[in-house]
Design goal:
The chain is mainly beta. The chain has one helix and ten strands; from the N terminus they run H-E-E-E-E-E-E-E-E-E-E.
């Protein structure tokens, strides 16, 4: 019995390790699904991710004035799995076409999407915190950028 357990344990550990670093499907970011909200002194930012299928998620992002509720900005978002790669697509008002960011790193608490050819941002990093909050870093991949701290609201 002891000899049979060791190969099974090694197999299980290998499967967990491979799955944790497999960024080729939307399974890698399943923890991102739901409604996320960030409230600051002046604004309320929300981001919502809903799986549509194994290869496509729909997302929305909105920034509203905290006092009046007036919409300051919005974006249409998508997560797509194609040819064993995952892409984050963002459509904002000031761009004619969506901008694609490739999932370059992932774990069960982290997802990094990058597009080095884009002006700004070049990198969007989602970090799920131990308490369940979501920290998002939007940057040029170097010094410039901003952070958003979300709480799950749905």
């Amino acid at each position: 019995m002891k000899n049979r357990c060791i190969p099974m344990i090694l197999c299980l550990l290998f499967t967990i390790a491979v799955r944790a670093e497999d960024c080729s499907s939307l399974f890698a970011v399943q923890w991102l699904a739901g409604q996320w909200t960030s409230v600051s002194e002046r604004t309320v930012i929300s981001e919502n991710w809903q799986p549509l299928s194994d290869s496509s998620w729909e997302g929305t992002g909105e920034t509203r004035d905290k006092t009046s509720g007036v919409l300051r900005g919005s974006e249409s978002l998508r997560l797509l799995s194609m040819n064993d790669e995952v892409f984050y697509l963002a459509k904002v008002a000031h761009n004619d076409y969506p901008v694609a960011f490739k999932l370059t790193e992932c774990s069960d608490t982290r997802a990094v999407f990058e597009n080095p050819g884009h002006d700004f941002p070049k990198k969007i990093e989602y970090l799920l915190q131990p308490a369940g909050d979501l920290h998002v870093q939007v940057s040029d991949g170097a010094e410039q950028g901003f952070d958003i701290h979300f709480q799950k609201t749905g």
